[in-house]
Amino acid sequence: MIAETVCSAASVAGLGIAAVTAYRKRFLAAARLAAYSLVPLGLVMTGAVEWAVDTAFSPTAWAGFGVLGAAWLMFMGTRAVERRGGGTRKERKAAKAAARREAVAPAASAPSLARSPRSAPVAQPGPKAGAGDDFSDIEAILKKHGI
Predict the structure, then answer these.
(1) How much helix, strand and coil, in percent to the nearest 5, is found in the chain?
(2) How does pLDDT run across 86-120, given as a tens digit for each residue?
(3) Which of 42, 92, 95, 125 has the CA that lies 20 to 30 A from 138?
(4) pTM for the predicted model, two decimal places
(5) Which residues contact 61 (CB under 8 A, 6 or more apart)?
(6) Quick one: 40 exposed, middle or buried, by C-beta within 10 A (0-12, 13-18, 19+)?
(7) What is the pLDDT of residues 15-28, one digit of tens each?
(8) Exposed, middle or buried, 36 (CB in 10 Å: 0-12/13-18/19+)?
């Protein structure tokens, strides 16, 4: 009963402030204030305020919130352990062994080990003819700036 009265009084006060704001020719702000002021009145009329008051003073409801909180903590805790690589020791050993077996490219180093002395050496590319010109331009720019 008292919660409904407080909400109704808040709505009336908000509508009064909205009227003063509209009188000052700030219609957009007045409309926004009126919308906010009607929310508590709407909650009273739908019965949501009565439900909230009954819930707030009910020990059963608070016990229910406690159970929901405990369930949420358990759920988040198990997810955290799972992300850190939890599980049994056997599962972790099996996962490590599988990772070792499934190498990205297990035969990638085989050709380098089986290289014969008769194979031709790979030709190294030499410096380009115009490379000196490019560096001389860069050196000129650096000297110009005193670097």
Answers:
(1) 75, 0, 25
(2) 667 777 777 788 777 765 555 555 555 555 556 55
(3) 125
(4) 0.44
(5) 54, 55
(6) buried
(7) 999 999 999 999 99
(8) middle
